[in-house]
Fold:
Amino acid sequence: MNEASKSTPLIELSGVGRQYGQTGKAGIAALSGISLTIGAGEFVCITGPSGSGKSTLLSILGCLDRPTSGSYRFVGREVSRLKPDALAWLRREAFGFVFQSYNLLDSVTTLGNVELPGVYGGLSRAHRQRRAKELLAEVGLAERARHRPAELSGGEQQRASIARALMNGGRVILADEPTGALDQHNGKRILDHLEALAQRGQTVVVVSHSPDVAKRTDRQIELRDGRVLKDVTRRVAAEPVAVYSTVAAGRKGKRKSNAGLIGGLSLGFTTLRRGFFRQGRLRAFLSLGSVALAVWWVVTLGAVLEGIAQEGMRIVNQMDANHIVLMPTTLANNDLAPPAVPLSLQDAENIEQSIPNVRGAAPRLTREMTVQSDSRSMQAFVKAYVPGMSMEESESDSPGLEAGRPITQLDNERLESVALIGPGVHSRLFSSLEDPLGQYLTIDGHPFLVKGIVSADRLNVLGASEEFAARIAAAEENRVYIPFNTGVALLFGTDRIRFLDIWVHDAERIGDTAQAIGDLLIRRHGQVGFMMSHRAGEAAEVAKGRKVVALFVLAIGAIAMLAGGLGVMAVMLMSVTGRTREIGLRMAMGARKKDVLTQFLLESAAVVTAGGVVGLAASVICTAILATLGVPMAHTGWVAIVALASAVSTGLLFGILPARRAASVDPAQAIAAG
Ligand code: ADP
Structure:
């Protein structure tokens, strides 16, 4: 604030009126035509009977309230029409309030209360604490800094509130009946303090109807029915001194709002923890609980439903959902139908390479044949396969070896008569003492050298049902693998592929992939002589089911969040109503609307975040228990993240209304109502 010339009075009211009631209609005139000046360093008492307008005048002087008519100049500057934030600035920088009922926040320590105006003044924590301690020492309360106001006597509380009024400088101390609630001894002590401040040059305006107070001040202004009845100056004011100012105290940056915000946050959270959670346990429990319940329900349900969906997908996959069997065939028993396409290895390679969703394609030449060793004979499934082609794509095509070496591409190219045998073949054709490797066996009379033994542990990979698994395992046990070309040349008599096994990456798109394969074959062969079988339906059903489940979870989540949000809003509105006085007080200490808004929004967000975390924890426990009971569970990280994020945003969203209501509190009324 610019220091005006010495002749400019500190406070100058001319024709100030304050009308209560609706505009336009005649209301109650609490003040009318008040004209007076107060110079820097004056010690003034405003007296008058109850209802004469003393408190109203004090509120106007302290910029807690605005005149409805007339002009109020502070150091030469018109303030009656200042914007709310500018008034907040003035309250913070120029005024210090002392109330009859002390108005200390019960939720923070005495030190915290004294610090409060410094928080809104943007002072650093260290700076604030240092100054608050000095001020408490000045009023004789150094030992009581860590106590809560409720643990202090009335006189001590009032001394703490004087310290608070001085926190940002308190160029003008405005005290409303400061001794009204105190016994004579303590009342005198408070007056001593105020007098000392006046003597060192601070401006002190006291409202009191007590003659004892009036006697001690330099000047007495008596009000009657909202007008000045008497204005008597007995002593000349002390020389004004330079007072402490947060502006001069080297607050960081031009906009102190950030420092104020952070300070406000820490203080806000302290009051949240102490005030909201401690004093309003039921309230906190209700709003936190409603959100916790919503998050718990959504995340648990999401995990269960996703678990079931994944289980379904797994079963479908076990049913070979990503498998297409392609068969060249005539499609009807008449001459007009296209003949079977001559499907070759090239087709298989082509399909594998040019259709993106295809993981691999393997021709199937398999037949039950007689396999013999020197002394024994059995029926075995002989499978001719192309080594290196789609080996990894199908368990049955990629025999892992227990012993020996694999069939190579060279074996295939050279039409080598080599074979890998399954464990069943091994045990039935060779004695346990014999090593089959390097021995010969015959397949349909053709000699083959045993090159390797397929390991048994490869055989239980497909296990849809136990029966199915057993069948597959038995088939695998008795399988003999030979190179594709050798099989064609010696055993199968044709390279016309009878079946082509095709595996896809994404079972959900298997229908489209089959279509693409069909198109490719028609392009290559110009006819439709083939059939394909796959289980597109099941996979698509499960995929659809999963989407429905996801939507269902989201919808339930949204409803639960809405309910939780409404709960939070109701509770926060209650909280605002219950804390109007605290809000007014914070505003008197210099909090802007924005500070109050932020504080309440953060409180809502904090409550719902806490609720969200509790709900999440409960859900983790719950899913763990359900999992041990055998319920299929899937950890749905995304549901948890979405639930938590929407809880926080719900808190912020539903916190807006209560926060706005808090920010629109009229400080003068809020304090008077207290
Ligand atoms: P004092 O502090 O001298 O007791 P006040 O300043 O509190 O007097 O009140 C002055 C007059 O204004 C009284 O008649 C009171 O009823 C009226 N008044 C004060 N505040 C309000 C209000 N918020 N709404 C309506 N009338 C009010």
